[in-house]
Write a structure and sequence with these properties.
With 193 residues, the chain is of the alpha/beta class. It is built from nine helices and six strands; from the N terminus they run E-H-E-H-E-H-E-H-E-H-E-H-H-H-H.
């Protein structure tokens, strides 16, 4: 099969993004695309040398975003964005300020949204949005469907064997997960919980 379409899938956080990007890449391969998946900067560099295609931007802070989007467009790529941070945010104005940039909308061809809240937030901030903004979901959720749950079975079995029955609460504790950890004088874990 001659592949004439390219899909560039940069990954920043392997634990969070890799399996979903592999799933997306698998389906793109079935549709005849050549797919490049890898560490974000390496995919950016490769996309400057390889044929034009679709670059799936993952959202980022405005300065870095400008560099990534400008480079992708300059190299002839169509640019779609699916912001990895777009699922849950409590402050819409902060989300727009930290994750979007009116000046960079010209470098996007398409905005993919996790759901209606993100889509509404973007469209309310940019009422004359020059690119399509569509709810697509995220392949990370597709991995939770029955057909793909087996991917994690071996790891799940190991966790059950190691820890027995347990309750997993998926959240973040930025006070404790910061780059520098807990500082002296911060609340202790015992008093915070």
């Amino acid at each position: 099969m001659v592949r004439t379409h390219w899909l560039y899938l940069p990954v920043e956080m392997k634990a969070r993004e890799l399996h979903a990007k592999l799933l997306l890449g698998y389906h793109a391969l079935k549709e005849g695309y050549s797919v490049l998946i890898g560490e974000h900067r390496k995919v950016e560099e490769a996309s400057m040398q390889l044929p034009p295609g679709v670059f799936l931007a993952k959202g980022c802070t405005p300065g870095y975003r400008k560099k990534v989007l400008t480079s992708a467009k300059a190299n002839g790529h169509g640019v779609m964005e699916l912001d990895e941070e777009g699922l849950i945010f409590s402050d819409a104005s902060r989300y727009i300020r930290q994750r979007m940039s009116a000046g960079q909308l010209k470098n996007l061809d398409y905005i993919c949204c996790w759901g209606p809240y993100q889509k509404h937030t973007i469209e309310r901030a940019y009422p004359n949005l020059p690119v399509p903004c569509t709810i697509t979901g995220n392949p990370r959720f597709d991995l939770l469907s029955p057909g793909y749950r087996g991917i994690y079975q071996e790891e799940a079995d190991l966790l059950k064997k190691t820890h027995g029955n347990y309750l997993l609460i998926n959240t973040r504790f930025p006070l404790y997960n910061g780059n520098k950890g807990i500082k002296e004088g911060d609340l202790s874990a015992e008093t915070a919980i």
